Amino acid sequence: MRFVKATIGAIVIIAAAAGGMTLSDRLLTEPELARGPSDAPGEAVPVETVAVQTARFVDSVRAVAPRARAAPSI
Q1: How far apart are CA 41 and CA 35, in angstroms?
Q2: Cys-Cys with 39: which of 13, 22, 35, 59 at CB 3.0–4.6 Å?
Q3: What's the pLDDT tens digit per position in 1-30?
Q4: How many contiguous H segments (helices) and E segments (strands) does the chain have?
């Protein structure tokens, strides 16, 4: 029984590794297919730049959980 469990475990690990390699291969190859149909190969991509600002963490994530501040502390 111990041998069967070890064999099944090895099969699962090998299958996960093979699946991960296949998935990463599919995601990392053919970057040209990710482009939209209107994107021309030589067309410039517009880039928006913004000035760097110093902000407190509490101010920068204010919209994430406004009710969390009002929640009672335990």
Answers
A1: 9
A2: 35
A3: 999 999 999 999 999 999 999 888 887 776
A4: 3, 0
For the chain, what is the radius of gyration of the CA atoms? 25
> Two tokens at 33?
């297919």
Q: Which tokens in the block code for residue 38?
A: 């209107």
> Rounded CA gap, 5 and 11, in Å?
10
| CA–CA dist 20, 40 (Å, integer) | 32
Alpha-carbon distance 22 to 28, whole Å?
10
Q: Is the pLDDT of residue 49 over 60?
A: yes
